[in-house]
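Let us practice reading a record.
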Amino acid sequence: MVTHISMNSSKTVIKIYLIFNRLVGRDIVAQVEDEISRQMKPFLATKVVILEKFRLSELYTSEIIFNDYKDSIIYELGKNNKLYEQIFRACSNDVVVLEWNDKHDNS
């Protein structure tokens, strides 16, 4: 379900906010972003970004979500950093701890 759509002031980015009731792979979302961008290209040279949220049933445990969404995690890691993707793929045990720090030290 689309909750809202926004565009930046320079009209270069369109953000589409979606809520899903089931898991949808990030690769599928990326294909939809690309297709919308392709169809809009004759009218606007914009980048389309889909921001997804999930409202999942209580039947989805952490283990089920991880197993079902693992390929999407790998996709996102590879898009941002191939090394992180390879490390994640190489993990052979059942326990994976990811720690992400978005803060930058400018000192």
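A brief commentary: The mean pLDDT is 85.
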